[in-house]
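Could you help me review a protein record that somebody else here produced? My question to you is simply how this chain folds and whether the tokens agree. Thanks in advance; the entry in question is below:
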Amino acid sequence: MERVEELKDAYGYTDGQLLKGLPELLKGETLLWYRNNRDDWTSWADFDRALRVQFLPRRYQAALRREVTDRRQKPGEKFAKYATDLLTLMRRAGGFTRDEQIERVYENMQPEYKIYVRYDEAASLAELQARASEYEDIERQRQETRKAARTDTAQPTVAAAYNKQECCWRCKQRGHTRFDCKRPAKKFCSQCGKDGVLTRQCHPPAGNAERAGTAAADKDRPDSA
């Protein structure tokens, strides 16, 4: 019905023309209802009233006003969508002045918007919309900055070169020796700093290496058995 009224005003149709055009506008259950009752209507206003009684819920206007009170901006919902939905409800409910619309839109928006957008600064819906958009832009930039900071923090840092003269041989950290170390022990080579290996495995003493090599050679000789 809203769309029909808009087209009526746009093209200058008369109420009589709209009544004649109803078979083109209606379909399904509504068209059947029209065919059964069309003789009862002598004007477009008669049809409009009958249509609302037939198809709108009981106490429809009261229900709309309750929806207006309960319709609040959802977390993460853009202000433009929220305001459009709420203004549509108020227009259909009827009886709201422009000042009342501004007050309701402001009252039902998310609290964090109110920190940036003061009620006294919004003399019109357009100004309220502009201020809310400014807040959303600022909040978006703030989130992008925080995200960039988290990304930078998550990037692996290059560890300082291991120096056996400066690093603890127990935990591999600087600033103390193994005799003063209170940190958990870490498995690494205290000579070169390689992780996951003991010093005697990474840099075995020369004598041990020679004995290990001789034993291996003897084992491979045919007469070793």
About this structure: Residues 212-218 have pLDDT under 50 and may be disordered. The longest helix spans residues 125-154. Residues 2-56 form one domain.
